[in-house]
Specification:
With about 625 residues, the protein is mainly beta. The chain contains four helices and 48 strands.
């Protein structure tokens, strides 16, 4: 099964937003923090310059296959052609399964025809087709743009990426020499399992303006990709419809993506990271934009920062364009804070880049989280046959000052199976070498039914707190940490709960480790909900599940068991010992008091005759520690 993006690409661009956010926004959406930035706003919005198009030069609704030619470029070893279909429902089943064409290909004329390339099906062929893709779709006749000093191209797409595939728009004035434009620069080069759909617009004036002949070509390319024991073409697929060349308006700025960094909803006093934006901005208009700036603003406190001025030429773009400073640091008070971003230039006083959204911040607590404590959905828990896949889900955290952390609090989804084993793990990440090291972890823990939400959405769902076995660990200021929950798979099933924030977090926020591939992956781009995995700075968490480093508890024999089983353990100190048998609800069904025992190894036979078939847990408990393992009872 094709996997998510390897962690190597974690630092790639994230959070794509829709095109065409051009003016037309009520100015009351943003409070005027500096009046001079807004004094001409109403007058500007009333001007008739919000249209993207001065004149249409040429268009193709792709209602038939005529007008386009499919071919293959140099190096293509898997010759999968661009194919014309009458609507998205005619796509190959595997393409639809992975790309979900029926859900996202909503071009105006998609029911009358479009072109697509299915790069996914060959890897499922019998035998699979291995190799590289370089498949092209070209206009069969030239297009005359004489008299148009500015030219842009617009088309509707559905693209589902996988590893190193690339989507390219190419322009030529002689059909021999081509200029290439990355169609999806934010996710090209390996943002696996990332879907992009909607309108795409590019200014191609430098190569297509005032030309007697212009050809347009779409190209889907992917190298041969090796995944485990398989080698196949590294791509999923691309759909194209409603292609148009047009003369753009003079002032047309497109915000391709905005990203908010370090958005948290629950912040211990003094630990909150200040927030800032960056963005990808394209000048699609006929004129250059001068004194262009990106602004980040928090409306409740009217905290605002702007980037330095820049000039953006027609057809140019800015990638990862950041405001110069952090624009908002959450205060140490309970509150709801409204965050937004916008663009301005001499010609465009106001362009909404990221609409306002609320961050409900809870302060003066010992819990650090990105979620809003409302269980809405869940994430992960892949299943292979009758077995669940092992994995580790993690959220990224940083602190503003050195602080001792004592454990992890998390919420599971309602598909979680009682009795599943989990462990809390804290990683420190080293950016210079792109490596990570476990610096703290909890003992194994078995989830009981009362810790699993029974419905969603659910505010204040039951949660699980796991202390680190070594006690506290000092998280260092400005270092990066991944706070994770390890799931062991097999007959266990665990899903990690997510909330309903939709905060535009960047991709490094949510991570996933696949032990079978020994690789970290990221959650795909978009306004992803936060996983409900929290860092706990309260030392009282140690009292919830006592540290067990003075007990070694071994697997009981037999397990599964019928009427009896042997529980073996090692004491590292002289302790008063009891053995508890509990069911999946947490109810104690048997207690064996062993009295005071000296340090050493012990084995106790436990009578299970009165227990029915099911999942149980056995716990060896002393006055200072306890350790728990799972027991399966199967009656003959």
């Amino acid at each position: 099964m094709k996997k998510l993006l390897s962690f190597i690409l974690l630092l790639s661009i994230s959070n794509m937003f829709g095109f065409g956010q051009n003016l037309g926004v009520c100015p009351s959406k943003i409070k005027a923090g500096q009046e001079k930035e807004y004094q001409n706003l109403d007058k500007y919005l009333n001007k008739n310059i919000t249209s993207n198009t001065k004149a249409s030069i040429w268009n193709s609704t792709m209602s038939s296959a005529s007008g386009w030619v499919a071919s293959y470029g140099t190096g293509s070893t898997i010759n999968i052609p661009w194919t014309w279909i009458h609507d998205t429902s005619a796509a190959a089943p595997l393409f639809d399964d992975y790309v979900h064409s029926s859900l996202y290909m909503n071009s105006t004329t998609c029911t009358t025809g479009l072109f697509y390339i299915d790069a996914n099906t060959p890897s499922f062929a019998n035998p699979p087709l291995y190799g590289t893709y370089n498949s092209m779709l070209t206009t069969s006749a030239s297009i005359n743009t004489t008299g148009y000093n500015a030219v842009a191209i617009k088309f509707y797409q559905l693209y589902y990426s996988y590893n190193a595939d690339t989507t390219i728009v190419e322009v030529s004035s002689d059909s021999l020499n081509w200029h290439s434009i990355l169609a999806n620069p934010s996710i090209t080069g390996g943002s696996a399992n990332t879907r992009a759909y909607g309108w795409k617009i590019f200014n191609i004036s430098a190569w297509a303006a005032n030309k007697p002949q212009v050809w347009i070509r779409f190209r889907f390319a992917a190298p041969e990709y090796s995944g485990g024991s398989q080698v196949y073409g590294g791509g999923y697929g691309w759909m194209i419809d409603d292609v148009e060349l047009f003369e753009p308006a003079n002032n047309l700025i497109q915000v391709d993506r905005t990203t908010l960094y370090d958005a948290y909803t629950q912040i211990p006093a003094g630990l909150g990271r200040p927030m800032y934006y960056d963005a990808d901005v394209l000048n699609l208009g006929a004129l250059s934009q001068t004194h262009l700036k990106l602004h980040g603003i928090e409306l409740t406190t009217n905290s605002q920062t702007s980037s330095s001025d820049t000039t953006l030429l027609s057809g140019s773009n800015l990638v990862d364009w950041s405001i110069d400073n952090y624009f908002f640091t959450p205060p140490s008070t309970l509150g709801t804070y409204k965050v937004a971003a916008f663009i301005s230039s001499d010609s465009i006083p106001y362009l909404l880049a990221q609409d306002t959204f609320d961050i409900k911040v809870v302060c003066d607590t010992c819990k650090y989280s990105r979620d809003n404590n409302t269980y809405t959905s869940s994430r992960w828990a892949g299943v292979t046959g009758n077995q669940s896949d092992p994995y580790t889900a993690a959220s990224r955290y940083q602190v503003n000052q050195d602080r001792m952390v004592y454990g992890v609090n998390f919420v599971v989804g309602n598909l979680t199976k009682p009795g599943s084993k989990v462990k809390a793990v804290l990683y420190k990440y080293f950016a210079a070498t792109a490596t990570r090291t476990i610096v703290a972890q909890s003992a194994n823990y078995y989830i009981i039914s009362s810790e699993i939400p029974t419905t969603s959405p659910l505010a204040n769902p039951p949660s699980i707190s796991l202390p680190f076995a070594s006690g506290g660990y000092t998280m260092q200021k400005d270092s990066m940490y991944w706070v994770g929950i390890q799931v062991f798979g097999g007959t266990d099933t665990v899903t990690i709960a997510t909330d309903n924030t939709g905060i535009p977090q960047y991709e490094q926020t949510s991570l996933y480790f696949d032990p079978t591939a020994n690789t970290w992956y990221i959650w795909g781009s978009g306004n992803v909900p936060a996983m409900m995995i929290r860092t706990v700075f309260d030392p009282k968490i140690v009292g919830i599940n006592e540290i067990n480093n003075s007990i070694n508890l071994f697997s009981c024999m037999p397990n599964p068991a019928n009427n009896t089983t042997q529980i073996s353990y090692e004491l590292k100190n002289n302790e008063k010992v009891s053995i508890l048998i509990t069911d999946i609800t947490g109810r104690t069904v048997k207690t064996l008091n062993q009295g005071t025992q000296t340090k050493g190894n012990y084995s106790v036979e436990v009578d299970l005759a009165n227990l029915s078939s099911g999942t149980y847990f056995y716990t060896v408990k002393t006055t200072t520690a306890k350790a728990t393992e799972k027991l399966i009872v199967v009656k003959q």
